[in-house]
Amino acid sequence: MKSFYFQSIADLSKKIASKNVSPVELTSLLLNRIQAIEPALNAYIDVLADDSKEQARQLEEEVLQGKIRSPLHGVPIAIKDIFETKGRVTTSGSKLFTKWKSTADAIVVQKLKAAGAIIIGKTNLHEFAMGATTENPHFGPTRNPWNVNKIPGGSSGGSAAAVAAGMCFGAIGTDTGGSIRLPSALCGIVGLKPTYDAVSRKGCTPLSWSLDHIGPMTRTVEDSAIMLNAITDDPRAFVQLPFEAENLAGVKIGLLTGYFMEGLDDEVKGIFMQATSRLSALGAEVVEVQLENVEEALYAQQIISKSEAFTFHEPIFEKYSSDYGTDVQVRLNSAESVTASDYLNAQRLRKHFKGSALKAMEDCDVLLSPTNSREPLDIGTNPPHETIHTIFKLGKTPIGNYLGFPAISIPCGFTSNELPIGMQLIGKPFAEQQILSIGSVYENSERWIKKLELNQAYENEMNQDAVNIN
């Protein structure tokens, strides 16, 4: 029965269309699974049981009438609780918003519903998306499905944990410095950050409006493409399916050196290099590429992120600073010293850095790097004053937001502690088709997805809790 919850969206879609799977029964079964597993992981802030059941009934009627809206028709999907949902509370992970209800759905939610997706619930996140651990002081920490004492990564950690544990078939996250890709890597799933502005941010609480991206988190690359097609506003980001490539012959991959290979745990580096060798074995030509001025770019990225976050929060923060978590207070206070000149110079450097990166990519199709630098941290070990730096210590993702280029994290192996590792592909603007196609070829050669179904770590925790209760 467990394998039922780990089906791909692509396979499930065919079964729904052929009437072999009922959206109503599917939703009911998934709600039961969430109820059973949620105490061990704390992936959700709000499970939309009644709403999802009503959606399922309407969508099932359409199936019986022969109407299928898209491959997401009747498929339960989770959304990060940072997206507005009509008539429902959207907390953004904060106690300040626990009573605020929107009068409209965010654009991405509208698009998912129009595609026939069932919104099963709203997932936990780092408060206001300002952190890389999803240790939320108001709603509790989300736990990593591979080791419940570890963080799942953040800020979209609830979305990653829910997908990895079979509590939804896909989820939506946000990514400002790696908040889709890092938790996807640490939880062993696929995370896609599309090209900047390819997905509307309207109705999403901003962290940093010029760095924020919205994208899918799934168990397979194909499922990420299916979800992207449902939510993108730009036809240039639309992906043609099915993927046709069976190998990587003719593909030239730029292996990022310098900063991207520094500070890695030895085991993580070894696993990543094995994945690089696999790409070569599949026919890709792998060449070393070095981006110039990466450290300056990362510093500028922090300036932009802090400045834009403070600008959004300033009116609320002045009145209710004590209601923010300690780590978010530290982050917002650190922005007060940033000058207009600092911000403008950071954006000016950004333009030059993008041009430099595109020049470096002239001789290759995509760039390749590790996603995470190390295994996930233990819950409770990341001090509040370190929060702003955590994403830079855990992963190699922030540069993708500074560039605004599409980037995907794909599972590429497991450490000796049975914790997942991810590799990152970065494409040129609107090269979603290319990075997804390359990722699909690699994924099909390894089939790491099977390990998600076999994972027992969180189930062992549930069993232990049951023993303690008895």
Automatic annotation (TrEMBL):
PROSITE patterns xrefs: AMIDASES (PS00571)
Record bears the keyword Secreted: no
The Amidase domain, residue ranges: 25-436
Keywords: Ligase
Claim: Transit peptide is one of the keywords in the record: no
GO molecular function ontology, one term from the record: glutaminyl-tRNA synthase (glutamine-hydrolyzing) activity
SUPFAM superfamilies: Amidase signature (AS) enzymes
Any Pfam family hit: Amidase
EC number: 6.3.5.6, 6.3.5.7
Protein family: Belongs to the amidase family.
Protein name: Aspartyl-tRNA(Asn)/glutamyl-tRNA(Gln) amidotransferase subunit A
Lineage, broadest ranks: Bacteria, Bacillati, Bacillota, Bacilli, Bacillales
